Amino acid sequence: MNKQFDVLVIGAGPGGYIAAIRAAQLGFSVACCEFSAYDDPAGEPRLGGTCLNAGCIPLKALVASSELFEKASHHLAEHGITFGGVNIDVATMQQRKEAIVTKMTAGVQFLFRKNRITLLKGRGSFAGRTDAGYRIMINGKDGEEELLAQKVIIATGSKARQIPNIAVDNVCICDNEGALKFTEAPKKLGVIGAGVIGLEVGSVWRRLGAEVTILEVMTSFLGAADESVSREASKLFLKQGLHIKLGVRIGQAKQTANGVSIAYTDDQGSEHILECDKLIVSVGRTPYTEGLNLEAIGLQTDERGFIPVNDHCATAAPGVYAIGDVVRGPMLAHKAEDEGVMAAELIAGQKPHLDYNSMPWVIYTTPEIAWVGKTEQQLRKEGHDYKTGQFPFAANGRALGLGDAEGFIKMLADATTDEILGVHIIGASASDLIAEAALAMEFRASSEDVARTCHPHPSLSEVMREAALAIEKRALNM
């Protein structure tokens, strides 16, 4: 055994590579192992995990391209801009997406070199524990090697959940990865799952001309979001042409001469067949722990497959932390990043803390959806006395000028202290606007604090201020 490190990170996704960088900044000798299912053409592992390679980054690139196509096709005439027919070259769109992915993953490689992080190309697994630290086996293309690490951070992420009896081949029946690689827009697209990924991917191909039907087993739409946002989103998506069927039971899906046939039963008990060219299975993700050999250090996953940790992401094995999708909580890249920073700082003896209630959620549909904190239905269930203020983008000059005036911002505050309890947005640039709300909640700000903060005019951020003013029934522009 000739390699020893203060900190070893298993997995180079958003949580893992950020954890490795922060540990290196704190002066530790750091290694990060990655076997990666996303090798580049040279056969080298591409860092960044699912997020950079087959999730957040490539999907948002396609979102941007499809939104521009839809705007050019349907919404520029109102600006006085007219031209001939608009066409989409899906191959060029996909090339642009891949170039962005390559640039981002290469950027992580650069950050590793900059911070003197040793990249170990292979799958990491535990081999046991000694007085000197944890024995880790790295199984790579060139064989197997053993090293020693004083502390370990597990950041192995998640994988797409599968439906029994529906075989994903990523040609006709695809998971979220295959859904990003279509070479043309299908005429008819079926999506199983009306969650974040299902809505985002379905919206991309709808903008490019697909007739999209989304089948959702839950009887409520976007149940995690505030009920006001869910209702507005359902109305707007229906207007756009998305067909969303709730409360269904999925039967058999089989490939046919023309594509895919999916049998399902609706919420009234009637049986139906959905015929489509492509089917996307988007029913969530499950933690990825295969091959870690956790038993060698006395750990095991819980009944849902997660690695049990405490509030600071420490496992029951001393000096071993687990972060991101492989532990409890929402599967969000920014959650994994913050947990990675926290784990590194705890190893350094610092006392970091994460407020999970102040972590924002975002859905990159059109319009975007974002929220942070409690929903109104959660507050009612808790018996919490609260006040609410809401303001529409339709009354905002900047939103009207942009031609993106759908939706609203809703703010919830404690009825007595006025502390902000939650903020919910459906509208243009919600992914950026929600950061102000998250910051306010981190500082335990009141709605009055936001209401009395001068916001630039004209800007979309004024809608946040007006929602805060509306808490006390004193919105100025409505």
Automatic annotation (TrEMBL):
Q: What positions does the domain FAD/NAD(P)-binding occupy?
A: 5-340
Molecular function terms from GO: dihydrolipoyl dehydrogenase (NADH) activity; flavin adenine dinucleotide binding
Catalytic residues in the record: 457
Provide the residue positions that the database annotates as binding NAD(+).
Answer: 193-200, 216, 284
Please list the cofactors this protein needs: FAD
Query: What EC number(s) would the UniProt record show?
Result: 1.8.1.4
Q: Where in the cell is it found?
A: Cytoplasm
- Enzyme class, first EC level, given as a word: oxidoreductase
Q: GO BP, one example?
A: 2-oxoglutarate metabolic process
Give all residue intervals belonging to the Pyridine nucleotide-disulphide oxidoreductase dimerisation domain.
359-468
Listed A to Z, the keywords are:
Cytoplasm, Disulfide bond, FAD, Flavoprotein, NAD, Nucleotide-binding, Oxidoreductase, Redox-active center
A Gene Ontology CC term for this entry? Answer: cytoplasm
Q: Which family does it belong to?
A: Belongs to the class-I pyridine nucleotide-disulfide oxidoreductase family.
PANTHER family cross-referenced by the UniProt entry: DIHYDROLIPOYL DEHYDROGENASE, DISULFIDE OXIDOREDUCTASE
What's the further remark here? The active site is a redox-active disulfide bond.
Q: This protein is called what? A: Dihydrolipoyl dehydrogenase
